[in-house]
Design a protein that fits this description.
Elements: H1 2-53, H2 58-73, H3 87-98, H4 111-158, H5 170-176, H6 184-210, H7 214-225, H8 244-283, H9 287-299, H10 317-323, H11 327-333, H12 339-345, H13 347-362, H14 370-374, H15 383-397
InterPro entries: 2pore_dom_K_chnl (IPR003280), 2pore_dom_K_chnl_THIK (IPR005410), K_chnl_dom (IPR013099)
Family: Belongs to the two pore domain potassium channel (TC 1.A.1.8) family.
GO molecular function: metal ion binding; outward rectifier potassium channel activity; potassium ion leak channel activity
Length: about 400
């Protein structure tokens, strides 16, 4: 049933994430551990030379270094830097909070600040995540509108659509984009290109101003835009910059745009991962069950096969949600698909069929007027659509 499929999908994803983490830990350990050991050996050598030169004990020196570490956590550095809790520094801090980046360079030290952060971050993070989700929805709508406009322009050039066709109301315009939802892979490609362009432009700004290498700037962009926020590299931390106001504004814009694109990209990639998990689960099904289903399908030649209803090669953002509905259990079990599921799966094809039949009956692509829509005659499939259009014309003439 549906519960078993969800449980299997959850367990498989958990296993894959654990394996992914184990592989990542092995790779990072192999790459970073030798460098860490070399740095530790150099530090121990310098510590030994310093204690011998100044006639200090190891215990006293280590106690002094621990006190410096505590001061460093509070924001104290050896070099003079600007105050971390002035208004601009606090604004930068709340930006890292609501965006869930959390560099860790600036943290509240008072009890009141920590309590306020809990409630402030609870509302701020929720609102920002909602903003990111709405950004992805608007992006999909814009892509669908562009695809639909380009298609209509091609039809007008061929003479299929009239050049003076008027668009409908705002609601009908949104409904007309339902069949133009872009593919998941198309949206993922657009977000990848946009994220790469933003990261390259931001790195070109960070490299001369912050004094980082271009590779370190790209590294900072990914860590910041993905809201990982290690804190090893943090922008806008020096005491003074050339064109300081302009730089801080540009830094804010790049981080906002980058986080929106990368967060949306993560959402789209998660859809692709979900599809891959579903494909793996299908491959892991018992072969014996598939053989039994094939025998059952052969004995029922007139049955509509679930696999033939619609292809899953070009899955859109919207149809991916439909595919995960309650009909999945019936499709996997091999039962005949219901009429409701068939109509839901082929709504775009039925709409095209209705449009073609209407054009054949009227002799030209007909634009429905506002009066006919108010009469409630717009709708239907096949012959019913032709009859409704005739009734609409009769009611308008009257």
């Amino acid at each position: 049933g549906r519960l078993n499929a969800d449980t299997a999908r959850f367990l498989l994803l958990a296993v894959l994430i654990v394996l992914y983490m184990l592989c990542g830990a092995a790779v990072f350990s192999a790459i970073e551990l030798p460098t860490e050991r070399e740095a530790k050996e150099r530090w121990e050598e310098r510590l030994e030379n310093f204690t011998r030169r100044h006639n200090l004990s190891r215990a006293e020196l280590r106690h002094f270094l621990r006190e410096y570490e505590e001061a460093s956590v509070a924001g104290i550095r050896v070099d003079d830097i600007r105050p971390r809790w002035d208004f601009t520094g606090a604004f930068y801090f709340v930006g890292t909070v609501v965006s869930t980046i959390g560099f860790g360079m600036t943290t509240p030290a008072t009890v009141g600040g920590k309590i306020f952060l809990i409630f402030y971050g609870l509302i701020g993070c929720a609102g920002t995540i909602l903003f990111f989700n709405l950004f992805l929805e608007r992006l999909i709508t814009v892509i669908a509108y562009i695809m639909k406009s380009c298609h209509e322009r091609q039809l007008r050039r061929k003479g299929v659509l009239p050049h003076n066709g008027r668009r409908g109301s705002g609601t009908s315009e949104v409904d007309s984009l339902a069949g133009w939802k872009p593919s998941v892979y198309y949206v993922m490609l657009i977000l990848c290109v946009a994220s790469l362009i933003i990261s390259c432009c931001a790195s070109a700004m960070y490299t001369p101003i912050e004094g980082w290498s271009y590779f370190d700037s790209l590294y900072f962009c990914f860590v910041a835009f993905s809201t990982i926020g290690f804190g090893d590299l943090v922008s806008s931390q020096n005491i003074k910059y050339e064109s300081q106001g302009l730089y801080r504004f540009g830094n804010f814009v790049f981080i906002l745009m980058g986080v929106c694109c990368i967060y949306s990209l993560f959402n789209v990639i998660s859809i692709v991962i979900k599809q891959s998990i579903n494909w793996i689960l299908k491959k892991l099904d018992c072969r014996c069950c598939h053989r039994c289903q094939r025998k059952l399908f052969r004995s029922r030649r007139n049955v509509v096969m679930p696999g033939n209803v619609r292809s899953r090669r070009n899955i859109s953002i919207e149809t991916d949600v439909v595919n995960e509905s309650d009909t999945d259990g019936r499709r996997l079990s091999g039962e005949m698909i219901s009429m409701k599921d068939f109509l839901a799966s082929n709504k775009v094809s039925l709409a095209i069929m209705q449009k073609q039949l209407s054009e054949t009956a009227n002799g030209y692509p007909r634009q429905m007027s506002s009066n006919s829509k108010q009469n409630g005659f717009s709708g239907g499939v096949g012959a019913l659509a032709i009859m409704n259009n005739r009734l609409a014309e009769t009611s308008v003439d009257r």
